[in-house]
Amino acid sequence: MQLAYAPLILILVGLAAYTVLAGADFGTGVWELTARRGPRALALRDYAHDAMGPVWEANHVWLIFVLAVCWTAYPTAFGSIMSTLSVPFFVAAVGIILRGSAYALRAGARTHREVGLLDDLFALSSILTPFALGAAVGGIASGRVPVGNAAGNLVTSWLNPTSIMIGAMAVAVGAHLAAVYLAADASRVGAAEQGGVPLVRGFRVRALLSGVAAGALALAGLAVVHRDAEHLFEGLTHGAGLAAVLVSGVAGVVTLLLVWAGRFETARYAGALSVAAVVAGWAAAQRPDLLPGLTVGDAAAGRTTLITILVVVGIGALVLIPSLALLFGLFLRGGFERSTARVPAAAGRESSPPSRTRGAVLVGLLVAGALLAVFGVSWALTLGITSLLVFVAGGFVVLASAAAVAETADSEPGSTGHRGPGDADGRQVARPSVVDRGSDGTPSIQAGVGRRGIRVGCATVALVAAVVWILRRLARAARARRRSSPH
């Protein structure tokens, strides 16, 4: 029974991450739609549009993760949900496609009219998508999705008081998180004003107003749930569900106080906690049922399938978590901001290239792990797989370190042959391994990038091969156990 809940915990973590991260991305559409005319509105829209650029696609990883785990671990529930709620999920999918297309095409827009049309499409789809997803959640939470293929009503299952209220809350919460995050980003990068427009103050006011609106909708939502879904209201007002609601309320109030005081970075995390607590409260209020009459234990797949899911997710996390940590770390530290000022070397910690000792250790782990995984049995097989997992994790750390060193080298004015603000003379420093000059004297970095790309490519191939080998070995071991087990 406990094993059946493990994938559900992963699903809830993915839902919380998607709500906190992608919800804020959707929320930028609200502010682009409300900022209509004038230089102030244009500055706010442009900054909101540019700020989400590095991470907006990565956030959808969590939605794919949730769908994949739910489909594999709870196939009966997944089929019932997707068939009955096919309409809102289709609307959400169309909204995501239109939103991504509008965002990408905006860079190629040539006229103000084209930019305006794309911005409107982006804003409207950014509102439509979270509303549809929230309405689908409302249908599940209110018990309007019975077990069976399209067994529920295709309209009233997601157009009902609870679904409409949760959809509206999803839009409001996303707008609130977006304003908090944008205020924190503008304050962090020193963009208090852009073109004479006070960005931080504008986003601060929006964060406060949207926070109050989201809180009011949450209180109204409890009244709606009390009348429309009594079992859900009962779970939210007792036990763990009540604790989660209280945590969400307190974190929401703290977020508003921090925004009022100008502590935007801390407010970012308090706001995320407030939203994540709502997801936890919903799960606590609905347990042990996934759908009416279908408990988590009854809906779960077989033991072998559940174990395979956990193993695959664990291996995938070795790739996904460091990648997302690197991405968001660069984003929060302003690594994607273009700055014309030279940062002194002593101002921060310099990245050092991976040492040869570390590389030798990783190669040794790869060789030893491969030999033990191929020829080992029992404890030797376990040790071999563990060695390969350590090699994969260490390999991605080395790749991240190498990427950081390359980024630091490429960002130095002298390394690219261009003068920095502090270079009084016009001398250009050439680095033969990185900088190569063409026939016209223009600096080129193709040689250095090519060699570095080959090394990174070989390392990536080795890491992927190790992961594939682990999966194949685990599958073969599982088949061997099934053959040897008595029938």
Chain-wise SSE layout:
Elements: H1 2-34, H2 38-51, H3 61-73, H4 75-84, H5 86-105, H6 112-141, H7 161-188, E1 193-194, E2 197-198, H8 199-228, H9 230-236, H10 239-261, H11 264-286, E3 289-291, E4 294-295, H12 296-299, H13 303-332, H14 356-375, H15 379-411, E5 436-437, E6 443-444, H16 446-484
Antiparallel strand pairs: 1-2, 3-4, 5-6
Helix pairs in contact: 1-2, 1-3, 1-6, 1-7, 1-11, 1-13, 3-4, 5-6, 6-7, 7-8, 7-11, 8-9, 8-10, 9-11, 10-11, 13-15, 14-15, 14-16, 15-16
Question: How does this structure look, described?
Answer:
The protein has 487 residues and is an all-alpha fold. The chain folds into 2 domains: 2-302, Up-down Bundle (Formate dehydrogenase/DMSO reductase fold), CATH 1.20.1630; 349-420 and 429-484. It contains 16 helices and 6 strands. It has a two-stranded antiparallel ribbon. A hairpin with a 2-residue loop joins strand 3 and strand 4. Helix 1 packs antiparallel against helix 6, helix 7 packs antiparallel against helix 8 (199-228) and helix 7 runs antiparallel to helix 11 (264-286). The longest helix is centred in the C-terminal third of the chain and has 39 residues, at 446-484.
